[in-house]
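Running co-folding for magnesium ion.
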Amino acid sequence: MRTFLGGSGQEGEESIGGGQALEIGVFGKNAAGFAEDAVGRAARAHQPERAAAVDSRAGCVYLGGLMKILVIGGGGREHALVWKLRQSPRVEKVWCAPGNGGISQDAECVAADMRDVAGLATLAEQVGADLTVVGPELPLVEGIADEFARRGRAIVGPSKQAARLEGSKVFAKEFLARHDIPTAALYGVYDSPGDAYSALCAVDWPVVVKADGLCAGKGVLVTSSPDEATAFLERLMEQKELGEGGSRVLMEEALEGEELSYIVLTDGRDVLPLPPTRDHKRVFDGNQGPNTGGMGTYSMDGLISAELENAILERTVRPAIAGMVAEGAPYRGFLYFGLMLTRNGPKVLEFNCRLGDPEAQAILVRADFDLAEVLHAAATEGLGGKALAWKEGASACVVMASAGYPGEIEAGKRIDGLVEASEVNDVVVFHAGTKREADIHYTSSGRVLGLTATGASLEQALSKCYEAAGKIRFEGAHYRKDIGAAAAGKRSAAGD
Ligand SMILES: Nc1ncnc2c1ncn2[C@@H]1O[C@H](COP(=O)(O)OP(=O)(O)OP(=O)(O)O)[C@@H](O)[C@H]1O
Ligand SMILES: [Mg+2]
């Protein structure tokens, strides 16, 4: 196991990006309150990075004894959170709202409406939660963190203002420009379909069309076809197929390169990076078929070089965290940077105000620290002095989906082989769309399970995921057979 030690001046063994020993500096601060040149090195080593001070934090009832935790959401990401939180000796009990079939074996599930932030806060009060952890974006964009702050309850997640980084792509784009953070060139923002159609005459192709608001992953089109762009605009802006989120759009330059998900945990001041991951959005092998919520993901040591990680932190993460402080909306919680690694360096494609799904599954199986303690600190006294340790090697998550996904699916299929799959070494079977009746699990939505494993190498992690997937049976089950294959192939070709 590799450890990344706190700011005590002790020396860790290796940085995530390569083999060199940690160099821990005493952080001098620049005008923005950031550590000077030690930042990159420290952050590579998963040390907290310092930004400007934060004024207020959520109140907290927890006094250092056993914690009661409420997790909000009901997918694979939330199952992974519940699974990891339950391993903490500091945790007395975990609730999950609404949870799912698999989560119901690890936590007490309570029905909940993700939009009803007052109801969710009342639930936290009723169960006496010392800490609430929010999985999905909807309650965050609706202001759940503000509601909890008003009631003096600790919560991991950004305020409504800060969650605009995900809730409004126009806000995010303008924020990136204000803080000089590299991103795709913006062609324009359009409130009326007429203006949007006319703008198509002046853009470069391919073009990227993005709905401003939340559209459940369906509000973005990258296309070289003016007809396709026009049809998409019509569906978004005139037919309002994706709701109000589509009534305003932006158009931007299409970037080329490899994508990377880079997620950090921050209290608004200190930043702890998580291992970077790669996602697989298309439903079929070879990146064919429509986009989904994510069909699989992986992480591995050396996925990106230390130099690149430093560039990501210096050019995107650090200015974003400082920018939110400067704008009076310090960001607290998980912040997901969707990046394009272009020839001219990393550029921000999007922000998400939460952990990704299935990125969270692949990340949390590598976590070698007390998640409850770290998240509680993030929500209350701050992350200063905290450090995260990760299992060495790699991890992967392969998503099994229902027939028809990401289109219409038929739920209620009996799932067999769950116990056999979970008995494969180093495999955790995270449930997403399942429900449990007596001791039998049935499918309940598109993405059903995330077979997740760690391994000394990516190849090993993947082979365990696929061995587990081979043991699961439900009618119409499908999954991609090429998760991580490009990276694993590159490694074997290089003789690693
Ligand atoms: N400027 C761009 N150039 C090239 N591709 C892009 C660009 N912007 C977005 N994309 C592609 O579209 C995908 C979705 O875009 P984006 O992440 O902004 O949308 P989203 O709907 O918020 O996604 P998610 O559901 O992952 O949060 C990206 O992962 C990327 O593949
Ligand atoms: Mg997004």
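Result summary
The longest helix spans residues 306-326.
Confidence is low (pLDDT under 50) at residues 1-61.
Job closed.
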